[in-house]
Amino acid sequence: MRIRALFAIVVLAFAAAVAIVQRAPMRDAHAANALSSEASVTVYAASWCSACKSLEHGLRERGVPFDRIDIEQNPKAYDVAKRATGKSVIPLTSVARGSEDVVWIVGADVDAVEKAYRGE
After folding, report:
1. HSE of 116, CA atoms in CB hemisphere, 13 A
2. Whose CB has fewer CB within 10 Å in the chain, the N or C terminal residue?
3. What is the CATH number of the domain that holds 17?
4. pLDDT tens digit sequence for 84-104
5. Can you give the residue range of the structural domain that contains 49?
6. CA pair distance 7, 23, nearest whole angstrom
7. How many CB atoms neighbour CB 33 within 10 A?
């Protein structure tokens, strides 16, 4: 039940962030589109954050599509992410797989994000 509540909060935050979300380029668009229908990756980051840049670069290299929310442009969405994780750090990444399965990764852990995205 708690996961459903967190997912609902995240969905509302995503809806509020639509104006500032940037779609990251994908290395293999066909393969990524096939997988992205199963999982959705969102990175909460800032332009000045080197760890965020490292995570984004690693995800692009591995062909993991993601949405990016700039926490300075959308602090309300970041507040939702902080409440969901209990952490006030960046990057924070959510990987949503279905309506009840949301995994949060704290920090620039490319391996963890990719594994969650691929369902491993």
Report:
1. 23
2. N
3. 3.40.30.10
4. 999 999 999 999 987 778 999
5. 2-118
6. 21
7. 11
